[in-house]
Every structure is written in structure tokens, then in C-alpha cells.
From TrEMBL:
Domain Phosphatidate phosphatase APP1 catalytic: 124-279
Source organism of the structure: Belliella calami
Domain of life of the organism encoding this protein: Bacteria
Stored Pfam families: APP1_cat
Protein name: DUF2183 domain-containing protein
């Protein structure tokens, strides 16, 4: 199977990554799935059978590009001088096809990759962490995180109250047209890509490219470097390919999001509107406060928030989202509390 990851870019260049793997038939999860069934599916995600050194063809509006998979089965396209149809739609499609025969009589192996190219209606972009920012994972407590990852599924993993409605509000901005690009940068491995897509779909979190990490040895190094370096590199890649617009950055206090975003602001002045950090680690509040002071001196506010509504009200006061969408966030939180 070809597993394409959502790509992104601009009118001149598009970045698209994917992987060629043996299809292990993982499929979608169900609310009633047992812990054993969840574990078996997650085991399959990590025990992958990669297909190295095969050629993938990308086709877009009659143009073709070729890429070869590496030792871990990954392929990467940097599509330049493309010709996306000139329509008012941020999401475009690229056709992918495996050109090599891996097994006898395999038939045609194809997939469709979705690529985000912002329209002129964009007000700002959003870059968000996932673990302990969108959904509780216990990322700072290894054993708890492993139990949550391997024995739960996309139905049982519940996002923080109001996150879905807040991210929908940010995507819509002030014109209500869902044109603002959403990016998700996480230290989770690419093995969880389909799981995270299903989680976001079930819980109605706006779609967008996911920038995850490689567990393999061949692309960079084991687990593709540090959490800090990975996130900083991916944010800078987004800034380069989606230029000319400011970004809202969202993270949590459990790991190093505040420190990473401080470096982003230093290296890219004028690109960040505000930073929202979810307060999930009481022992790091003093450190976050110190970082917030440094960021404020650079002309940007870091807001340490205890819940989603606090961030939403701040965004409303700054004129970035609509009043009716904030009311929907409050309603979502109330419904969650009553359920």
C-alpha cells in the first residue's frame, strides 16, 4: 500500500511525504473495541513491513514526478513549478502510483494524496502540538502514555473540552469560510498517522498536515533527533513554504513547546501573532513565566491558559475569531461536562 501523508506548499512549491508498506489491514476502530483489539491494531502499526528502493510516480494535471523509497519505505516529493487548478479550494489532489512490482501479480497500487495550498482568503495560520495540547496523553509520564497509546483507540481518546470548537473557530477566522491553514506538529511517530487522522475525524478537529517523527535509523537518526530539534525544524519548514502570513502557535507546558516557540520568534520576527500554552505541568509554571517575559520583550504575548475557553476569549478580544463561535465553544464544554 501507498500511505501518503497530507502535503502542503504554495503556488510554486509543494512538499509531500509518504510511505510504502505491506498492507496489514488495520482498518478503522469502533467504540466497543476491546483493549486487546486496540493493542493488536497498535502492534501492527509499529511492526511495519517497509518496501525500500521502489519508485513512486506523482501525477498532477498531466505533469509527473518520480521519487524512490528509502530503507524505511519513505518517499519524499518537493514538487516545483506545479500547476494546481486555479480554483477557490485550498485542498488539491496528487495521484500516486507504485511503478515497481514487489510481489508477483500485485496489480495496480495507487493512492491519492491531499495537498494544502492556501488561497488568498487566509487571515492567519495555526500550528499546534497534539499530545497534552489537543488530547490528554500523559506525555511526561512514560508508562501512562504507553498504556493510553496501546490500549485505547480513536473513540476512547477524548480531546480536552472545547478544543474541537476552538480549532474550528480558528480555521474559520472572522469570515467564517474555513480557509485558515491548520498544521499539527508532534513528536509522535509516523506509525500513528492513520490513528491520529481517525481521532481528528471522529472528534471533528479541522484537518491539516501532520508533521510527525520517524522511528527508523535511515533518514536522520534514531527517532529523528530530539523533540526540540524536530519541532523547530518542522515549524521553520511551514514558515518557509507558507510565507506571507502570521501564525498562532499552540502547545502545552509538559515538554518544551514554550522554549521552541521562543526560538521561532527570535529567528522569524513578525511571523507570530500569539502563543497559547496549555497549563498541564504545575512544576513548570515559573519557567514558563520567565520564557513569557522574554517573548513579550520580542513583541509577542505568551498566554498560559488552564482551559480552552480562556484561549478562545483572548482570541475573540483580539478580533481573530467570531462571537458566535466562542458561544459554540462554551456550549461544547457544557455538553461535555453533562455527558
Amino acid at each position: 500500500m501507498i500511505l501518503p501523508y497530507k502535503g502542503f506548499g504554495n503556488e510554486k512549491e509543494v512538499f509531500l511525504v509518504g510511505r510504502v508498506l505491506r498492507d496489514r489491514g488495520i482498518g478503522f476502530s469502533a467504540f466497543e473495541d476491546s483493549r486487546f483489539r486496540n493493542f493488536r491494531k497498535m502492534y501492527k502499526r509499529f511492526m511495519t513491513w517497509e518496501i525500500p528502493n521502489v519508485t513512486i510516480k506523482a501525477t498532477l494535471d498531466g505533469q509527473e514526478w518520480l521519487a524512490t523509497t528509502d530503507d524505511e519505505g519513505y518517499f519524499e516529493f518537493e514538487i516545483k513549478n506545479h500547476s494546481f487548478p486555479k480554483i477557490d479550494n485550498s485542498w488539491q489532489e496528487v495521484k500516486l502510483e507504485l511503478l515497481d512490482e514487489v510481489i508477483p501479480n500485485q496489480g495496480i497500487v495507487q493512492a491519492t494524496a491531499r495537498v494544502f495550498v492556501p488561497t488568498k482568503l487566509v487571515e492567519y495560520g495555526v500550528i499546534s502540538d497534539i499530545d497534552d495540547t489537543i488530547v490528554p496523553t500523559g506525555a511526561t509520564r512514560v508508562w501512562e502514555m504507553l498504556k493510553t497509546t496501546f490500549f485505547g483507540n480513536a473513540h476512547s481518546r477524548i480531546p480536552f473540552e472545547g478544543v474541537s470548537a476552538f480549532y474550528q473557530a480558528l480555521e474559520k477566522g472572522t469570515d467564517g469560510k474555513e480557509n485558515n491553514p491548520m498544521f499539527y506538529v508532534s513528536s509522535s511517530p509516523w506509525n500513528l498517522y492513520d490513528f491520529l487522522l481517525e481521532l481528528m475525524d471522529i472528534h471533528q478537529i479541522p484537518k491539516g498536515p501532520l508533521m510527525l517523527r520517524d522511528l527508523g535509523l535511515s533518514r536522520e537518526q534514531f527517532i529523528a533527533g530530539s523533540h526540540f530539534d524536530h519541532k523547530l525544524t518542522q515549524v521553520e519548514k511551514i514558515f518557509r513554504l507558507v510565507s506571507g502570513i502570521p501564525f498562532i502557535l499552540i502547545g502545552d507546558s509538559g515538554q518544551h513547546d514554550a522554549e521552541i516557540y521562543l526560538q521561532v520568534i527570535k529567528k522569524h520576527p513578525g511571523r507570530v501573532k500569539v502563543i497559547y500554552i496549555r497549563d498541564v505541568a504545575e512544576n513548570k509554571r515559573n519557567m514558563i513565566t520567565q520564557i513569557a517575559t522574554q517573548i513579550r520583550e520580542l513583541g509577542v504575548e505568551l498566554m498560559l491558559v488552564t482551559d480552552t475557553i480562556s484561549a478562545a476569549k483572548d482570541a475573540l478580544n483580539r478580533g481573530w475569531i467570531r462571537q458566535e463561535d466562542v458561544l459554540e465553544i462554551i456550549k461544547e464544554k457544557k455538553d461535555h461536562a453533562e455527558s
